[in-house]
Every structure is written in C-alpha cells, then in structure tokens.
Design brief:
Layout lengths: L14 H24 L32 H17 L7 H25 L3 H24 L5 H32 L8 H23 L4 H21 L8 H27 L1
Helix pairs in contact: 1-2, 1-3, 2-5, 3-4, 4-5, 5-6, 5-7, 6-7, 6-8, 7-8
InterPro entries: TspO/MBR-related_sf, TspO_MBR
Protein name: Tryptophan-rich sensory protein
Subcellular location: Membrane
C-alpha cells in the first residue's frame, strides 16, 4: 500500500469555496436520498423489475447476479462521507477537492437520473446516462492521479470512494449496454450470446489493466477500482454457474477477468514502487 505523503494546503479559502462546499453537501443528500428511493429500497419498484426486467440478474449473460448490487450501499456511504469531509472548514481550499467536488456532485445526479430513466422504461436512455456517468468518473480519475495528495483524511476518502465508484460503473456500463442490445433485439453479429459476452468481460479486464497502469502511483485509487471491478465480474461468473442463463464459457471468462482486474493494479503499483 501507499504511504500517503501530504502536500500542505496553504491557499486561502474563498467565498466560492464555501458555496461549493455547501452546494455539494446539500446536493449529495438530495441525490443519495433520491437514488435510494428511486431504486425501490423503501417499497417502490426495484430496478431489476423496471423496464420489463431488462436489467435483471438473468437478462443477459453479462448481468451480475443480484448480490453484486450490494456494493451500492458501500459506494453511497463513501459518497456521504466525502460530502461531509469536503464541507469541513479546514478543507475549503484543498486543491484536490476543488478539482473534483463539482464532478462528484454531477456523478451523483447522473446516477439518480439513470435510475429515473430505468424506472420510466427507457433502457436506451439509461445507456446514454451511464456512459456520460462513466466519462465523469474517468475525468475525476485522471485528475486525482495527476494531483498530489493533500491531507490524509480527504485524500483517502476521495480516492477510495471514487475508486470503488469508477470500478463498479465500468462493469455496469458493459452490462447495461448488453441489456440495451438484448432489449432492442439487435442481432448477435455471428458471435452468438456467449461469444459477445466473452468479448465484453475481456474488455473489462483490459480496462482494469489500463486503470492500473495509468494510476500505478496512486494505489489508494486504483486498488479500489480493481476490487470493485473484480467484485462485479465475479458475480457475473457466479450468475452463469446456475439458473436460466447457465454458461460455463462465460463463467470461466468472467472469473479470469475478475482475477486480472484484482491483480492488475497490485502488479502495476509494485512495479512503480521498485523504480
């Protein structure tokens, strides 16, 4: 693991910083509550049942099994903690928080919008939203890699939260795209469901390697990305070992991809430390 080396925050807190801190805190509360209610956590329609079940655990061969989605409780908790930490008076001028706080708020609002799109039955709309969401998370990832750590608490909370969020949404984007193609009855272009599923989980493994290589000097960021991606891919594999979409080939490919996702950031980090 990385030894956090903090860069002193010496810049002066401005009125714009205070406005940002309050807005992100309030916006985070609204976004998290809205997303929780919209997902059916308090008795509404669950996401798995919305849009005709297009995003259920058995909709496509790359749909993660139901327990995979419990990671959202961890991500939401991290986002709530982030919102509180960034709002602390001492963190008003933190350069990393200045660089990504608005982006974090945008990601939370996009996540709520994604839930809304699914609840109204627009699978195509959900794909557009999740692709934009992944773009926002990728932007945060690049900024966090480039900026040095500041104080330990905001640095660790930010990296862990954004890392888990980015890793999970990376896998979810592939699953969401597959759900849209299945819902739209797009032809399988010769490869068949199994072939395309292997291509998608392989793409996830390649993406995990890319994340690890680029962010190799930020273990607190890339290790959570790999962990979240491995979690999602493992549950894709487990989902294909039983039930109506049993597929040994996809299960094996998903388990291998999960191993790659888990190890890639570790290997990249260790290689960077030896240089």
């Amino acid at each position: 693991m990385e030894t956090i080396t903090s860069t002193a925050v010496t810049e002066r807190v401005t009125s714009q910083d205070r406005v940002r801190q309050v807005t992100v805190l309030v916006g985070a509360v609204v976004a998290v509550v809205g997303a929780t209610v919209g997902s059916g956590a308090f008795g509404g329609q669950p996401i798995a049942e919305a849009a005709g079940g297009a995003l259920s655990a058995t909709a496509t061969p790359v749909a993660p099994d139901s327990p995979a989605f419990s990671i959202w409780s961890v991500i939401y908790t991290g986002l709530a903690v982030f919102a509180i930490v960034q709002a602390l008076p001492r963190n008003g001028a933190d350069p990393r928080l200045r660089a990504i706080s608005w982006w974090v708020l945008a990601s939370m609002l996009l996540n709520a919008l994604w839930i809304a799109a699914v609840q109204v039955g627009s699978v195509a709309g959900s794909v557009v939203v999740i692709v934009v969401l992944l773009g926002v998370l990728a932007t945060m990832y690049v900024r966090l890699v480039r900026l040095p750590h500041t104080r330990t608490l905001p640095s660790v909370v930010t990296d862990l939260t954004v890392g888990l969020y980015t890793g999970w949404v990376s896998v979810a984007t592939l699953a969401n795209t597959a759900a849209f193609l299945a819902d739209a009855e797009v032809s399988e272009l010769g490869l068949g469901a199994t072939g395309w599923s292997v291509v998608l989980v392989s793409a996830a493994a390649l993406l995990a390697v890319t994340y690890g290589a680029y962010g190799r000097r930020r273990p607190t960021l890339v290790l959570p990305i790999g962990l979240a991606m491995a979690w999602g891919l493992t549950w894709i594999g487990l989902g294909r070992t039983n039930g109506p979409l049993f597929d040994d080939t996809v299960a094996t490919a998903a388990f291998v991809a999960a191993g790659v996702a888990l190890l890639a950031p570790v290997v990249a980090t260790l290689a960077a430390r030896r240089r």
